[in-house]
Amino acid sequence: MPFNLDKLERLETQRRDFLVRALGAGFFASGLAGAMLQAAYGAGKVPRELPPGKSIYEIKGRASVDGTQASLDTQVQPNSLLETGRSSRIIFAVGKDAFILRSNSRLQLSGNELVNTLRLAAGAVLSVFGKSEHRIVTTTASVGIRGTGIYVESDPERSYVCTCYGVTDIQAATDANSREQITSLHHDAPRYVTAGGAVGQRIQPAPFINHTDTELMLIEELVGRVPPFAFSGSGYTAPRRDY
Asked: What's the 3-state SS for 104-131?
């Protein structure tokens, strides 16, 4: 049975403290994650690493890959085009990168054996990445990424960028003087990146919106990792990164 992400979103507030305590106590590292998550979410609903040959974990509503309606058996390639309709979502992985593409979104992946660039023409995507460098391009921003969890929304006049954890280099598409490096442990510095505005000032502070820690835990699990934000003082050496 697929992981019920909608239900998890509704219960996010009351469950977050439990999960963070579990992470901080080392349950993921010690192999007790399954039992702990089953206690929180119910038996049979704990996400697992996708098996070889599988790209898609869940589809809600209308989602296409390379112009064809997607199914759970569809393969997503490093250069695939993904699109979603109204009230739709697709959760998928390519290599050691995993994603939740929201409704009304258009995402072009680029790469050969691995994804290296994502072009988000519209909509929103939550992403977690492996060790290689990546870049996300939106309507108004270019974001360089190093081993990071990141949430991005792309609108014609403004993009939203939350570096959930890791390091990003953000630059406004219309102004090379508007640039900022973000180092984040846990959603520390969300930003809006605008198409217009004063030179050098097109990156502005933003609130934390529209994504959850539960979603990050889910997609990290699909590629065999754990998000680092609960491991106080451990930086990025525990256990999400072992290289």
From this structure: CCEEEEEECCCEEEEEEEEEEEEEECCC
In the chain, % of residues over pLDDT 90 = 69
DSSP string, 28-86: HHHT-HHHHHHHHH-TT----PPPTT--EEEEES-EEETTEE--TTPPPPTT-EEEE-T
Tell me the pLDDT tens digit for each residue of 99-119.
999 999 999 999 988 999 999
d(CA 161, CA 193): 8
Beta-strand relationship, 89-94 and 56-60: antiparallel
CA angle (91, 210, 196) in 5-degree steps: 110
For the chain, give the number of residues.
Answer: 243
The whole-angstrom separation of Cα 2 and Cα 58 is 7
Report which residue type is found at 114: L
Q: How many CB atoms lie within 10 A of CB 3?
A: 21
CA torsion sign for 83, 98, 189, 11 is: positive
Enter the DSSP assignment of 230.
G
Q: Are 219 and 97 in contact (CB under 8 A)?
A: no
The span from the CA of 13 to the CA of 40, in Å, is 13
CB pairs under 8 A, 24+ apart, for 56-60? Answer: 56/90, 56/91, 56/92, 57/2, 57/3, 57/91, 57/92, 57/93, 57/222, 58/2, 58/3, 58/5, 58/89, 58/90, 58/91, 59/88, 59/89, 59/90, 59/91, 60/87, 60/88, 60/89, 60/90
Q: Specify the pTM.
A: 0.81
Q: Cα separation of 31 and 157, whole Å?
A: 45
